[in-house]
Amino acid sequence: DHLINQIAAGEVVERPASVVKELIENSLDADCARLEIDVERGGIKRLRVRDDGRGIPRDQLALALARHATSKLVDLADLEAVQTLGFRGEALPSIAAVSRLTLTSRARSDLDAADDSAWEIAVTPDGRLDGPRPAAHPPGTSVEVRDLFFNTPARRKFLRTEQTEFEHIDQVVRRLALARPDVAFELRHNGRLVHQLPATDGRPGSRRARLDRLLGAGFAEQSLEIDVSALDLRLHGWVRRPAFARSQPDQQFFYVNGRLIRDRLITHAIRQAFSDFLHQARHPGYVLFLELPPHLVDVNVHPSKHEVRFRESRQVHDFIRHALKRRLAQGIL
Ligand code: ADP
Ligand code: MG
Fold it and tell me: Domain DNA mismatch repair protein S5, which positions (predicted)?
């Protein structure tokens, strides 16, 4: 089983940043309000994600580390309507198979059968579980991952410098923090505070402050806010004003039902909207969110989950193109 998990880890765990992504997604799925991400030496030596989410009761700690044990899908029909970021039950066992992992949690007493203390469980290098044993932890969960790929030297060889690995982690945190302004994020590298992002409070100014912190001062001011709905589709977010629409490939973020995706259909629709309006090709920055009923989109295409498949792809394309084009034409409003 340990071996199977190590093989599966090849799909899920490419580098420290993929670990951080999976752990943050689990925290978001657990309805946390704040997240602390602590990274040492590019995440290769050690990384830890701590949340204040609903926690894991003692008797489910071992299960959380078992393969294909997810608490998120009730039956197969649910696959049509996945609302959570994770649903395969693969991440924790896969990460544990290629690192030294410790899971510490305290179930939020108002939701689960009140656990009166926190519990910790670790995975030994040969794949056995050690614990649960009592621990100290506020309500919520911490996952600590040390010595990534210590037992898979071939994989370890593919890691880049600590600085490069950290940059990948930073990118993952930015993507998720853009999508979840309602959650506070803190990121530290080697003890140094890299991001401190308070949760937004619903006022537009606080939402803009997060955008500017993540994408550079002036992003919000140089962008048009958009929020358009038609039928089952809603497109909202920010797109660079034409006057500031240069080539900004590092500022292009598109989310479908909260998940960041890369999709040629979408890129094409956005580019089309700009060239309809400006009569020249542009690749401007944007942070856009498309919301649609889960049954109209298949997120189950690839484990890395950057791809999606739309049931009505033409309709989605045209909706985005026309919504953006109209917004660009309205300008300052
Ligand atoms: P998945 O996210 O696909 O369900 P994972 O392997 O990522 O699978 O996690 C396994 C299970 O562990 C989750 O279904 C969830 O029940 C539990 N879990 C993991 N991380 C957390 C967390 N931060 N807070 C609460 N529960 C968690
Ligand atoms: Mg998960």
Answer: 211-329
**What would the two tokens of residue 130 be?**
């050690």
| Model confidence, pTM | 0.91
Distance between CA atoms of 239 and 85, rounded to whole angstroms?
Answer: 25
Is the ipTM beyond the 0.90 threshold?
Answer: yes
pLDDT (tens digit per residue) in 296-307: 988 766 656 577
Index of the ligand 1 atom closest to the CA of residue 91: 6
Q: What separation in Å is there between the alpha carbon of 30 and the centre of ligand 1? A: 8
Choose the residue to mutate in 25, 63, 70, 120 for probing ligand 1, maximizing ligand atoms within 8 Å of C-beta.
70
> Closest ligand 1 atom to the C-alpha of 53?
24
Task: State the helix-helix crossing angle for 264-278 and 313-330, rounded to 10 degrees.
Answer: 30
Per-residue pLDDT tens digits for 98-151: 999 999 999 986 555 555 689 999 998 788 999 999 999 999 999 999 999 999
Q: Is 142 in the pocket of ligand 1 (CB under 6 A)?
A: no
34 lines ligand 1 (CB under 6 A): no
- Going from the N-terminus, what domains does the chain have, and what CATH number goes with each? 2-197 (3.30.565.10), 204-330 (3.30.230.10)
